[in-house]
Amino acid sequence: MYLEDIYYFWKMTYTFISRYEYEVIHIDHERREVWLEQTKGTITKIIRLKQQTFDWSNHLKRDQDDVAEKVKRLSKSLVGRDIRVHLVYISQFPPVDEWEQKPIHINNGRKSVRIMTYFVPQHDRERHLGEVYEALYIKDPPFSPESEEEMESNVPQLRRAVDQAIEQNIKSQQAVLSRGKPIFTYLLIALNVIMYFVLEINGGSQDTNTLIKYGAKFNPFILDGEWWRIASSMFLHIGIFHILLNMLALYYLGNAVERMFGSARFLVIYFVSGIVGGLASFALSQNVAAGASGAIYGLFGALLFFGLIYKKLFFKTMGSNIIGILLINIVISFTIPQVDIGAHLGGLVGGFLASSLVHFPKKRNLLTQTASFIGVLVTGGLLFYAGMQTNETYEPHTEIVLASYYQQEGSFQDAYEVADEAIEEHGNKDSILYFIRSYGHIQQDRTDQALTDLKRSVELNDQNDPAWYNLAVLYARQGERDLAIEAVQKAIDINPEAEDYKDLLNQLEASG
């Protein structure tokens, strides 16, 4: 009976959706074909219901081959590694000749795919349906057939019920992905861009001293109590490409995360990620650092947490792309020396923990959230402790940066003390440090020591034109005109655009 076939198709579809939590991933009303999915743990079950009769087994084989190709493509977006496909044909009778009932096995990368075929023909239909239930590990007894009148009236209702279930599932998925509006994402982008132009106007975003002055992460000042730099450095960027790449990432990732978690939770995730990333940078690197990368990696962590909670929806919408982009970025972080890998990985961990802490709207897990809160505190505490240990002594480059900053800001005594300690106690033999220390000697009228440091400076770096110029000034004060002319001429050779160098040379030549 053809009506009975149609009834069983829609009744089975509705039963699997409403009672056994299968999700429709494809439906064709005209051809009466539906694909259903259910994932539990590592096992994904696919039911492909088809209302069709095959006269011969070769026709069935062609359909099975088509299904196998579709499953290969579909398996890339499926979560489970063990994929079990159940082909259920609702037909008046099975093929008249023998057909292959053995499972079909497909190796598709790391995923195992097994395809099993069942017929639910008119003859003894309830028993055959029971076999399908048994294969799907459904313990409930299959539904019983109804009268022809009941089937005729129920088919339209079942069809509408299936459509409504599909529509409701789509709405619930959209609700998960759009719980908020990306207000703070745009505000953060605007704030970062404003601070970039502030840096450019006041010395340049690639100038180390300007970055330190405006709040970049600089370990010596953090140790002196300027802990706010851990947060302020999140809003500074080094160069046009740095700001463009980070703001592009913030635009896409921030949009997604703020919509999923809502604005308040998004802010918590963003700042916790940035702070944990900053602490990781403090612990693992003494370089001057700036940028929103830690917070942005935290947004990656938030999306991974989303994938943990909404695994099926994650892989259906963005999962493979997000994981691929994240892996590429981590590889780049390890291969490019200038990249602050500590901030990136710290932000990633911080973002995941912060997401678990705030969780999703209307979802609560007190145990997990408490553990995540403790995890944030422990992670931050360990990074703080590690930073205090690793920064007991400064690296040679950090000593140079610190002394240079004090020198540029006019704190000559501080610059002198840093340079002197670096040279005498730490053995840092850098041209810049000798040049800076010479200023301290000059201020204290120790001309001989100043000359010694300047000579050592140009010996270490004969392209240090300010050191040559200062040598010329000191020689001139001592009446050593020839040595002064020779020194200032070298400064001019290195930097022919410096007018004060030329003025000194003219004065020296005129005095002769």
UniProtKB/TrEMBL annotation:
Major subcellular site: membrane
TPR repeat residues: 465-498
Membrane topology: Multi-pass membrane protein
Positions of the Peptidase S54 rhomboid domain: 225-358
Transmembrane segments: 183-199, 234-254, 266-284, 290-310, 317-336, 367-388
Keyword annotations: Hydrolase, Membrane, Protease, TPR repeat, Transmembrane, Transmembrane helix
GO molecular function: peptidase activity
Keyword match Cytoplasm: no
Biological-process GO terms, alphabetical: proteolysis
Localization (cell): Membrane
Keyword Protease appears in the UniProt entry: yes
PANTHER family: PRESENILIN-ASSOCIATED RHOMBOID-LIKE PROTEIN, MITOCHONDRIAL, RHOMBOID PROTEASE
Family per record: Belongs to the peptidase S54 family.
Protein name (database record): Rhomboid family intramembrane serine protease
Species this chain originates from: Pontibacillus chungwhensis
